[in-house]
């Protein structure tokens, strides 16, 4: 796990004002995902994002399709995805983790809509809890908001450079 000084910097408070952020939330492993969702809310509040759309999907494998639907709607400036995949005894973990990651990346590249990847792929519930801590702690959902808004700021700046 990256320590606080190794993670990406955060945009300044209020930097996301006016952005419309979509949230795609998997319902599998709800205890961890609820904690990630709390982090997403903290990040959105910190950045001044007041407009958003949240959709839920059954599991992490379904996240890319829902993200693509939001991205194609034309009503979203950035997307945050949250979910948790916990390793089990079969290869299901690898299939879901890799499929979700590759799918989310493909949606970003195809649509140009930035996506903060807030999925935790862990060996145990304890590791999931360590990556979905409360205020002041490490929370991948909160980090994903900062990534999504940072990239939305970049997209806006690149689009207006020629104006």
* Main β sheet profile: 4 strands, parallel
The helix content, as a percent range, equals 40-55%
How many H/I helical runs? 5
Write the H/E string, N to C.
EHEHEHEHH
Rough outline: globular
Task: Extract low-pLDDT stretches.
Answer: none
On the 0 to 100 scale, the average pLDDT is: 94
N/C terminus separation: 41 Å
Structure characterization notes:
- This protein is an alpha/beta fold.
- The protein is 46% helix and 19% strand.
- A four-stranded parallel beta sheet has the order 2-1-3-4, with helices on both faces.
- Strand 3, helix 3 and strand 4 form a beta-alpha-beta unit.
- The radius of gyration is 15 Å and the shape is globular.
- The model has no long low-confidence stretch (mean pLDDT 94).
Question: Notable features of this structure?
Answer:
163 residues, alpha/beta, 5 helices
What's the quick description here?
By secondary structure, this protein is of the alpha/beta class. It has helices at residues 30-47, 63-72, 92-111, 125-130, 140-160; strands spanning 20-26, 51-57, 78-86, 115-122.
Topology:
Layout: E1 20-26, H1 30-47, E2 51-57, H2 63-72, E3 78-86, H3 92-111, E4 115-122, H4 125-130, H5 140-160
Parallel strand pairs: 1-2, 1-3, 3-4
Helix pairs in contact: 1-5, 2-3
